[in-house]
Write a structure and sequence with these properties.
The protein has 233 residues and is mostly helical. The chain is built from nine helices and three strands; from the N terminus they run αβααββαααααα. This is GntR family transcriptional regulator.
Length: 233
């Protein structure tokens, strides 16, 4: 056995802890700034402290957790600049994905799925309840990424998604916001189905900029103070 790697069963247990904590942070079950106490996690998952530390180390590398000496791990809070940079990266990547999707939609086996999604988004324009919209929103964006059929682009976007959906789960959604988002989704889907790459990219970028502006206009404990000498955009 390679001494630099944990045993296979420990790797599996670490992955289980990692997946649970990552999903919990994404879904807002763990609040920004909340401590993740090793002893509690060890008891909850019936694993060793080494396994818990390995999972927390992975989450720190992903930017979801902060580990500080003498205090341990806590759910990372984001600055406004962090959020602005996140949405800017999404704008560039998902705009490109929408362009690729429009270029390939004619021959895509997922064309009918996008047509069905168009019907679903029209339903959301008359929504009176936001329940389920975060998942519906994620499904729309995931479908376009799948249609784009570029594994490198998909991988880069996926690295950003946990942070994005974490923000949305933490209360940055309203009825008006849902209806506006759905109308924008309809425009994007129609441009893709019309084989209009330029419009699809422009509309997707506009959609993400709108979401960014709305998110950054709100106050929320997700945000922490900017480090000295660094200002949000």
């Amino acid at each position: 056995m390679n001494a630099t790697k944990p045993p296979r069963d420990r790797q599996g247990m670490s992955a289980r802890v990692l997946d649970h904590l990552r999903q919990g942070i994404k879904d807002g079950l763990f609040s920004p700034g909340q401590r993740l106490i090793e002893a509690d996690l060890t008891r909850e998952f019936a694993v060793s402290r080494g396994t818990v530390r390995e999972a927390l180390g992975r989450l720190e590398a992903e930017g979801l957790v902060e580990i500080t000496p003498h205090r341990g791990a806590s759910v990372r809070q984001m600055t406004r600049r962090d959020v602005a940079e996140l949405f800017r990266a999404r704008e560039i990547l998902e705009g490109g994905a929408a362009r690729l999707a429009a270029e390939q939609i004619t021959d895509s086996p997922l064309r009918s799925s996008l047509e069905q999604e168009l019907v679903e988004q029209r339903r959301w324009t008359e929504a009176t309840d936001i329940s389920g919209y975060t998942e519906a929103n994620a499904h729309f964006h995931d479908l376009i990424i799948e249609i784009a059929d570029n594994q490198l682009v998909a991988g880069l976007i996926n690295q950003l998604q946990t942070h994005t959906w974490r923000i949305l789960f933490l209360g940055f959604v309203s009825i008006d916001g849902v209806r506006t988002s759905a109308r924008q989704h309809i425009q994007i889907a129609e441009a893709i189905l019309a084989n209009d790459p330029a419009s699809a990219e422009a509309l997707m970028r506009q959609h993400i900029r709108h979401t960014a502006d709305d998110t950054l206009s709100r106050q929320h404990p997700l945000y922490r103070s900017e480090p000295s000498g660094r200002r949000s955009r």
